[in-house]
Design a protein that fits this description.
Number of strands: 10
Strand content: 5-15%
Radius of gyration: 20 Å
Shape: globular
Largest sheet: 4 strands, mixed
Length: 318
Amino acid sequence: MRIFTDPAGSGWLWFDNLVTAGGTSVAFDPQTGAFSSHAHFCANREVIDCNWSATAQGALCHACAMTVLVPDPAIPNAVTNWARTEAAKRWVLNNLSRWGWFGPEDTGVRPVFHLLAEGPTPVIMGHAAGVVTISVAEADPVIVAVRRTALEEPYRTMIGHMRHEIAHMIWWRLGLQSDFLDAFRAEFGDERSDYGAALERYYADGPPSDWKERFLTAYASAHPHEDWAETVAHLLHLTDISDSFVASGLSSPEVPDPGWDPYLEADSERLIHAAASLTVGVNHVNRAMGLSDVYPFVLSDTSRRKLAFVHDWLRTGA
């Protein structure tokens, strides 16, 4: 993620800022990719601290307008978790807009979000026909820590969920192109195989013993659709880590040049190599504080090839 200039002063702003260091209220304009102190604020600003601008006073911003179902505020912590969920969604939408997805120039269908709080019954997250369903409970740090342990997942965050589920939606759009489907099936397998049966088999038997050689995560081995979604999510992880590294003014021999923009990198192999190399250093820094690795994954040759495939399709834009 980039670091932004202060429109009302000489300092800097982070992507989630609502005010400047000097106390001026600001909003992020997704069309210009910059903050403004003279924008119409999103109608959700006072409700969930949305910091994006809207096209008119009292209107929802571009991101909040995609949410058609919001959590029941009567459920404990629902509004707090909704706010965290929308923040993660804005982050991921901004990532994808760097490649032209779901931004002003994208005339295709945008995702529709159902953001639901969990009552007695857990919310099943997923994508179907352009609708992304997310459990906002997954934004609760205690709940996600418990589930990360229970499901033996070294990485589980709301940004990760957003990247994964929106990836399904992107496949849904790309799947309208026969050349994409032919190439996808050659790389990931035939997605027409029984999805329900594949998931039942995965949860009953677990991943194949050699999954680390062929997939980024164990869950990716369940079905070609999940392999695609996990690979897209990981491409976004790696690209955003690289972009944030450069934006922070950090340097590394693995960064091609000081002004390098990972989202403009056309060479998939160079992007993946640089990003994977940076994660080693970032992981080492986290260990100095007794924290888990930021990117606890190893990229096999097969996974790198799949990441390059995804990069080639996503970077061409919507």
